[in-house]
Write a structure and sequence with these properties.
homopentamer; mainly beta; OB fold (Dihydrolipoamide Acetyltransferase, E2P); 5-stranded mixed barrel; about 50% strand
Chain lengths: ~90, ~90, ~90, ~90, ~90
């Protein structure tokens, strides 16, 4: 799983039927210092997340366990809104 | 999921039977500023997408949920044609 | 699978129900010289691991075989606490 | 899916039983200008491909849909021999 | 699939039950010139491989088809010991 910041929204009229009613959020994967590791990951929201939230993202088939409907053809989902990241060592 | 631009088409006569009748599109994965993040991703179209469209791509087993036929041996599919990407913060 | 060092913890109140009661650990993927190869991977602990431990991480659907509950929407899990890495050749 | 060029062959006597009788090809993942994006991907051939062919490669569980036998422990397969890549825009 | 060289071993007392009795090998993913492409991949051995062998590695769910026991929470396995890589063109 990866830490990410929600940076925007994606709108699509023509889409696979399973996406109807779901919110597609644009995110940047970040590290614990909020440095961007990967940009422009689009994830289905399952937590009521919004722009500016730090969230937890899952990829692959895990995204379909978290999604509100199981038949959604997604490979990324937001599964948690993060309250706090505590780093004990900087390694 | 990833934002992508459709840049071309791929034609193959000799192919796994499941691909018969499907459209194979060449795409570039992009960020919200349309900078190319990954080039030459070939995806099965499920939305009637064409060259120049900005689309949403899924990878892995998700691609077979979206595909018109479920037995297709693909690991990438276009699941939406994007109308609008709204970026609220530049992070 | 990948070697990793546990560097911290992640706390989330709003999350997919399957994560209740599970410990989310922040890790850095490392090589055998403890050089960081990938930072900020969040994994579900299944071994009683803690900060400072060198652990073995699995990604993808493997993470749900290891997890205490099979319905957890995770794509990363700690499946072992490493005692010793023996490198015979430096290649 | 990815474009690739077949560059060689891989031979193994000691192998998982499922690979008996299958052809293992060495490939380089390329873009539409035939620049190498990733080298040394080994894929099971399902199309009668040979050295020098431009092919379409799938990764992950998709590779086992395409493989002649479904119990093969592979994560990469050649699913098509490409006739033509048409690039409409250079993006 | 990827070419790899076995460089060492990994020992863990505390581990997911499925790993009992399995050999965990440290490997470097290489190309056909034995240049290292990715270091520190830990894979379950299914072929009797040892340090110094050139092997074939699979990732993801394929690793659980090859593993001696199907309930192992691994995402990487050694599925063949390579005798010979023949490169016909240097691309």
């Amino acid at each position: 799983m990866q830490l990410a910041t929600v940076t925007g929204t994606v709108t699509a009229t023509t889409k696979h039927a399973g996406f109807e009613g779901l919110k597609l959020l644009l995110t940047n994967v970040i590290d614990s210092d909020e440095q961007v590791l990967q940009s422009a990951v689009v994830a289905v929201d399952t937590c009521g997340a919004g722009v500016g939230d730090m969230v937890l993202i899952v990829n692959g088939s895990a995204a379909r366990i978290a999604a509100p409907t199981s038949g959604v053809a997604t490979d990324a989902a937001i599964v948690a809104i993060i309250d706090r990241v505590e780093v004990a060592t900087s390694t």
